[in-house]
Design goal:
The complex is a heterodimer of chains A (about 400) and B (about 160). Chain A folds into 3 domains: about 80 residues, no CATH class; about 110 residues, no CATH class; about 100 residues, no CATH class. Chain A is mainly α and about 400 residues long. In chain A, helix 13 packs parallel to helix 15. Chain B is an all-alpha fold and about 160 residues long. Chain B has one domain. In chain B, helix 2 runs parallel beside helix 4. The longest helix of chain B has 23 residues. Chain B is globular and about 45 Å long. The chains are: A mainly alpha (about 400), B mainly alpha (about 160). At the A-B interface, helix 1, strand 1 and helix 2 of A face helix 1, strand 1 and helix 4 of B. Strand 1 of chain A pairs antiparallel with strand 1 of chain B. Chain A: InterPro entries: DUF6179 (IPR045751). Chain A: It holds the Pfam family DUF6179. Chain B: It holds the Pfam family DUF6323.
Chain lengths: ~400, ~160
């Protein structure tokens, strides 16, 4: 690192202070002057660091005037700023709607705030954004755009793993970790990786993500026999395997292996206490789903229902029939009767579109059970049931292509 | 990072500044006021003390020449109180730069100081500091600009 003397830097500082005040003020507060001076050193360091592969860079820097070194460093940092902004936009597009407030706030509010407020010329070392979401590996000794660039690169590496899994499964893992998962400052990647590593050891399919209690018991028995170094090797091997299966690059392999090493220490400790519930997590039904369990409404009297069916049978217009359903049917068992007797062909779609997600999934479960008795022969199901299964599979296909 | 950058700045600036202030004597002569070399050095020292006590750092020629040119025609300043008044004006200038959160430019603040010094304050720096400038800076901190405050003050 080249040290320029204060006498060499002062004219540059005076020039920058003059720029800062737009010539309106000959003096600034000590804090402002310190910020501006720190920004000068920050840009000069960037230029000197940029040429570390080329050892001649240091000699060149020594010969160049501080103003030149500063200006060149400023260009490097401005380019980095633009690159980081592009990376942020990519991350925003890629990131799933994981139910963790710190993660969502940081990506969609905190980091953009940084790009709005950051001032490389005069406040280069200030962390202008609001970065709450913790990464798997903490970033030390960096500030300003260097910090954000490193943060975004690491976040992007973490997203490469997270994005391989279904949103619902990730949210369920978080819920299994803690019911307060929405407001906790936790690293999602770490939890996902831990479970994937667990499933690798169990030789199970990663995609389900959740580790069941009996599997956890097996992992406890199997892993507690291993020494720290063996555990570390096993997890690193697992991380390598995951990266190669997902086709991830060298940088990811390094990052994931480092995470696996850190995890091995935590796991070793928890194995000795026989408390690995938070290391290998069992997914838990989400809060929202728990709250929106299906509740059966009030059933109609048999005679009233029969009267309604007769009336609907003579009704010609589908819109009139659906209107009657809306008005008189408040329970799924009544609806099933109506669907079986009063609707045909294309009409099913219209009636089923009146149902909520929970109602559809409740009906689907019933139909699947029935299918088991019919040895999977869909054609033996009632027409409306066949239609409901079609709607459900279309819905899944559409949502997976989004 | 090296934080103590006051000392080299002082050394670099002192000589240039003495020359600039000496040059002011040519203009202020017609108002019957001049500064001797010893007085200029005293004023320089007061300026650095004022900067230090107010936690500020200054580049360039400093504020003294501007203050001299603005205040030399004041009816309340004469040779006997010239140096003392300049010392006090320098001191309150840096204080109110901080108080206005640097929202007022050097020229705006000096013009306001001169206006009130010659009128409402009738040459009293104490009155200037404790009433008018205080009120002006408070208004600036509340988000008004100088013109708005002056208009309200005149009402």
């Amino acid at each position: 690192m080249i040290e320029h003397t204060m006498e060499e830097i002062l004219p540059l500082l005076a020039r920058q202070v003059n720029r800062y005040t737009s010539g309106d003020s000959s003096s600034v507060t000590n804090e402002t002057a310190k910020d501006i001076l720190a920004s000068i050193y920050y840009c000069m360091d960037a230029y000197e660091k940029a040429g570390t592969e080329n050892q001649l860079q240091e000699i060149i820097c020594q010969r160049e005037a501080p103003e030149m070194v500063f200006e060149k460093g400023l260009i490097i940092e401005k380019r980095k700023f633009q690159k980081a902004k592009g990376l942020m936009e990519t991350i925003q597009k890629e990131t799933m709607a994981i139910e963790n407030q710190a993660m969502q706030d940081t990506i969609y509010y905190g980091i953009p705030l940084f790009f709005q407020k950051y001032d490389i010329c005069f406040h280069a070392c200030n962390d202008a954004g609001s970065i709450d979401y913790p990464l798997c590996h903490e970033i030390y000794n960096l500030c300003g755009i260097d910090f954000i660039w490193e943060y975004l690169k690491n976040l992007s590496l973490e997203n490469k793993l997270i994005n391989r899994f279904a949103l619902k499964d990730i949210n369920e893992i978080l819920c299994g970790y803690s019911e307060e998962y929405e407001s906790l400052l936790i690293n999602v990647f770490q939890l996902v990786l831990q479970n994937v590593l667990g499933l690798t050891i169990l030789n199970q399919n990663y995609q389900r993500l959740s580790i069941f209690p009996d599997e956890r018991a097996y992992l406890q028995k199997y892993l507690e026999k291993l020494k720290q170094k063996e555990l570390e090797n096993l997890l690193c091997h697992g991380a390598e395997k995951i990266c190669s299966e997902f086709g991830l690059d060298e940088t990811s392999v390094f990052y994931y292996k480092k995470a696996a090493v850190n995890f091995s220490f935590q796991l070793n400790k928890n194995l000795s206490f026989q408390k690995i519930q938070s290391d290998f997590i069992t997914g838990k039904l989400l809060k929202t789903e728990q709250q929106t369990e299906f509740e059966e409404g009030g059933k109609m009297e048999d005679s009233q229902l029969r009267k309604l069916i007769d009336e609907m049978k003579i009704c010609r217009l589908t819109s009139d029939k659906t209107e009657m359903v809306k008005r008189y049917i408040h329970s799924l068992s009544d609806l099933k009767e109506i669907l079986g007797e009063c609707f045909w062909g294309e009409e099913f779609k219209e009636v089923l579109s009146l149902l909520s997600k929970e109602e559809i999934s409740f009906l689907k479960k019933e139909i699947e059970l029935e299918l088991e008795f019919l040895f999977g022969k869909v054609e033996e199901l009632e027409p409306w049931k066949q239609e409901l299964l079609k709607i459900e599979s279309n819905f899944i296909q559409n949502s997976s292509t989004l | 990072m090296k934080n103590d950058f006051n000392l080299p700045i002082m050394a670099l600036q002192k000589e240039q500044e003495v020359l600039a202030v000496k040059k002011c004597n040519e203009y202020t002569k017609k108002f019957g006021m001049t500064l001797s070399d010893a007085e200029i050095k005293e004023l320089m020292q007061c300026r650095f003390d004022a900067l230090k006590s107010n936690g500020r750092i200054e580049f360039g020629m400093g504020i003294l020449p501007k203050l001299i040119y603005e205040f030399c025609d004041s009816p309340y300043i004469y040779q006997d109180n010239y140096v003392e008044t300049l010392e006090q004006l320098q001191d309150i200038f840096y204080f109110f730069k901080n108080e206005s959160m640097d929202e007022l430019s050097d020229d705006e603040l000096i013009q306001a100081m001169k206006k009130y010094f010659d009128n409402e304050c009738q040459g009293s720096i104490e009155y200037l500091a404790e009433t008018k400038l205080h009120e002006l800076c408070r208004a600036i901190r509340f988000g008004n600009n100088k013109e708005q405050w002056e208009a309200e003050d005149n009402d």
